[in-house]
Amino acid sequence: MSLKSKKRISNITYHLLVLIGGFIMVYPVLWMITGSLKNNTEILNGALSLVPPNWRWENFARGWRGFGGISFATYFRNSIIITSIATFGTVISSACIAYSFARLKYPGRKFLFTMMIMTMLLPGQVLLIPTYIIYNKLGLVPSPIPLLLPHFLGQAFFIYQMMQFMAGIPRELDEAAFVDGCSRYSIFTRIIVPLLKPSVITTIIIQFYWKWDDFQGPLVYLSQPTSYTVSIALKLFADSTSRTDYGAMFAMSTISLIPVFLIFLFFNRYLTEGISTSGLKG
Amino acid sequence: MKKVKSTDGKRISSIKALIYNETTAGYLFALPFIIGFLGFTIVPILSSFYYSFTDYSLGNKASWIGLNNYITLMGDKRFWNSVYVTFKYVLTSVPLKLIFALFIAMIMTRKTRLTGFYRSLYYVPSLIGGSIAVTLVWKELFSRRGLINQLLGMAGIGRVSWFGNQKVALIPLILLTVWQFGSSMIIFAAGLKQIPTTYYEAAKIDGANRRKSFFKITLPCLSPVILYNLVMQTISAFMTFTQAFVITSGGPNDATNFYALYMYNNAFTYRKMGYASAMSWIMLVFISIITLLIFKSSKYWVFNESDKE
Question: Mean pLDDT throughout A80-97?
Fold first, then answer.
């Protein structure tokens, strides 16, 4: 066998194996999407098949009706509102904090930065119960405020990420602006913020994902069915006392993942860059 | 009149100087963090320390009971079981996840036109795996007549009652975690890219085989990235809650009753806030020690740029 054809065979095997592996990886997702077009018996009997025997679009209508007269329109609206406000808060506050830590010199900065890194390593579950008790004493349970307020006070992961990015912005720009009479505030708004755009996009995407998927927060803090988010509502399918309507559950699950997929499709680059820079240089 | 005006002017200019001072600006920009750190980290940690010495359920007044919560915990079989189950889960899922992540990242270093597409394919589970949607699907995959049992049936092994048998109930949860190796993979891939190819070329000239260059070049060069992934994945594995809550509710017979789940149930199902606070504190100390140990041990296996020179 010639060297060339040997190489060709190895190439084909490589692609084949990687593709098969990839197919296995996404199989559960494909099964969910096609399951949204099957009924219960078809789902339970056809665990191996990806092709729906009859395309049952009515699953979507039935699922959308929701629970107890509250449709998925409400759940989606709640999720969108909470996710957007939280993401907005994270971007604004984290950018300010990152600027303070990365660019300004003042006594106590090192200490604050160390504390920030500590909170990054602090497991969130440890704070869940005491934070709940505090919100409860303030009369904020049930309400969406506990789900939003912390985002306006900086999120360590994103502060760190933005600091990494700011380290790449030449300090000479700040200095030149300072000499020209710019204050630290206008340096931030006129120089740092516009240049921070890629990092801001990464933050928006990752924070959106985390908040959209969040389950424990809404579970603990939202008790009125009208304020439920999509993730809580999806769990209701499995909780129902009667038989679970799998078709409707998969239909709504599929819809709930559409924004996630769309963002991934269009902003893939920012996402992977954001994930990898946080792990490097560290 | 004139005098007043000039002191006014002075006061204004000194206020201006204060506002434009670098220290003031620094603290102003850091203010959200300072408030958040005090209000949402320090105060909760300290108050949970206090509540851990009380008998407290929401609505009632907390009554001081000293060390009773901790003493009860030490004799609570369900507590020790949750510690055991959580360790079993962390010690299997985290290494498996990191090995898979590194393995696939290395396979993806081969440059082809499709590499970007492949990487996305393997990343998808990480992207959506934390969602309730996928968690519910996972439960169905391991159900009595689900995909996994059908495959096992075809292989002649026979059906397994995944959520009815204590011995195997943890496996679907571990697999769900390992399946989401995508983000660790991306971090590894970025780390691999930074290793200069000249290292490998030099090793090849010196007669090193692939295995040798993996252990002598790849692993040492990647060690800072491995440390980061290890710390982050370990912490998040210790906190696992949603999967167990949704898929198994901790059963059967507490076989998947993770620490975070047992803590949640103590607080919100059994309404024992004081008891749950004691659990929070034990978790805090536990994880701090483990993180510290990982960092301390890193001296012996993580190589920094500065060490090389």
Answer: 95
In terms of CATH architecture, what is A71-236? Orthogonal Bundle (1.10)
- Do both B40 and B122 map to the same domain? no
Give dist(CA A266, CA A259) in Å, integer: 11
Q: Cα separation of B82 and A249, whole Å?
A: 31
Q: What is the pLDDT of residues B14-65, one digit of tens each?
A: 777 777 788 888 999 999 999 999 999 999 999 999 999 998 887 778 789 8
Domain that holds residue B40: 2-51
What CA–CA distance (Å, rounded) separates B294 from B231? 7
- B230/B98 Cα distance (integer angstroms): 8
The span from the first CA to the last CA of chain B, in angstroms, equals 70
Partner-chain contact B231 A121, CB within 8 Å: yes
CA angle A84, A85, A87 (to 5 degrees): 65
Q: Give ipTM to 2 decimals.
A: 0.87
Q: In this predicted model, what pLDDT tens digit does every residue of A180-219 receive, in sequence order? A: 888 888 889 888 999 998 889 889 988 998 899 999 999 9
**Portion 19-48 of B in contact with A at CB < 8 A:** 20, 22-23, 25-30, 32-37, 39-41, 43-45, 47-48
Which one is predicted more confidently, B2 or B95? B95
Judge if the upstream peptide bond of residue B252 is cis by omega within 30 degrees of 0: yes
Give the residue on A whose Cα is nearest the Cα of B246: A235
Task: Tell me the torsion sign for CA atoms B134, B165, B73, B249.
Answer: positive
Same domain, residue pair B166 and B264 = yes
